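Predict the holo structure. Ligand: copper (II) ion.
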Amino acid sequence: MKFPFHTLVFLLLAISLVSCAKPLADSTDSETRTEGKSQNACKASLKTDGVCLDAIWETYPTETTVGSLLVFARSLNSDHLVKDFSTDLRVTLWMPSMGHGSSPVKVVPLQPGMFRIEKVFFIMRGDWEVRFQTPTDRATWALDF
Ligand SMILES: [Cu+2]
């Protein structure tokens, strides 16, 4: 069975248009995602302090080894490090579904606005909270381990 020539041209054109349209749609999507990401990167918002706590794993914990977390105090209004952020940051681990904590972590101030949270150990798999507390505010980062 043969198609008329103009049908073939039309089909090829349609296919090329579809294949062109996809990357364009993808790039629009990824731009939106990138914009959203900088907001999502705020793991815990200290709204009274006006500080967003960004956190990245330096070492991800396992069921038998401790992890460490780098925490950056970023201004809620800009992407700037809050260089006078209180060094009196307290951090605890909590499993909300079962109502228990874990062993104490160690908060190491690296420079104003930057901390390393050491000895992060989750004693079981499941839902956990990293609870941040300053003298004037508190915030929680919920995660699955
Ligand atoms: Cu538990």
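The chain has two domains: 1-40, 43-144. The longest strand covers residues 51-59.
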